[in-house]
């Protein structure tokens, strides 16, 4: 994606991603042994384009992937001055074949106690109903409930309000949707969008209405969806995708990082100025 950037109006080639992108990588069909040569060819092609790019930016990339250091080296070999930068942390859970019961035993006692106490209280009251929508049946009603919860939550309004409903519909058609809605007294109180794909459960969006906060609807709904993806979908990994929010440590066991690569072009005036600014 070509875009102007900053007061200098730099001509920047950016990764095809946006606000919602949790992971990016070059799409390679080459075998691992051929990957360095493929990335070298990509970097050389970018460097040869006219008019020249002042900067090239890839993010967010998997820091542990073999692609990351290879891409850095390829860009350097093509003549760019390269810097890497931290984007965000990602908390995740390798399931290792565990059931939900076995998984829950490994979680902090404070989480287990809160979950058991709040769930029993809500179940005894008869006020709650939980649904997990996985197909197009009842989907539009569920989307409306999700939007209602999100707007009433602490979350900032979506910059692109049509994106999430469109993503939900696409996932429903593909069979990857796990949209959880928790109702209290007939009203949607919490909503979570999970996506199950290729053995992973991706926790994409979560929200709850703050006037129901004392009932812990978000905790209860997370546990319900976790039980579904472990016992029904039998996924290999659960991933919170982005952010180092403290509550994620209670649910997940491992953390990894997503980083970016900024390649500046010394052959252009704006690129050289940016190099001086960054390195200075």
How would you describe what is shown here?
With 280 residues, the chain is α+β, with helices and mostly antiparallel strands. Helix content is 37%, strand content 28%. The protein is built from 9 helices and 10 strands. A 10-stranded mixed beta sheet has the order 1-2-3-10-4-9-8-7-6-5, with helices on both faces. A hairpin with a 2-residue loop joins strand 7 and strand 8. Helix 1 packs across helix 2. The longest helix has 17 residues. The chain is elongated, with a radius of gyration of 22 Å. The model has no long low-confidence stretch (mean pLDDT 94).
Output the keywords.
280 residues, alpha+beta, ten-stranded mixed β-sheet, 9 helices
Report, as a whole number of angstroms, the end-to-end distance.
Answer: 28 Å
Q: What topology, given as strand order, has the largest sheet?
A: 1-2-3-10-4-9-8-7-6-5
Average pLDDT figure: 94
Give the helix level as a range of percent. Answer: 25-40%
What is the tally of beta strands? 10
- What's the main sheet like? 10 strands, mixed
Q: What portion of residues belong to β-strands? A: 25-35%
* Secondary-structure element order, N to C: EEHEHEHHEHHEEEHEHEH
Radius of gyration: 22 Å
Quaternary state, please?
A: single chain
Instruction: Assign the structural class, choosing from mainly alpha, mainly beta, alpha/beta, alpha+beta, or little secondary structure.
Output: alpha+beta
Helical stretch tally: 9
Shape: elongated
Q: What ranges have pLDDT less than 50 throughout 5 or more consecutive residues?
A: none
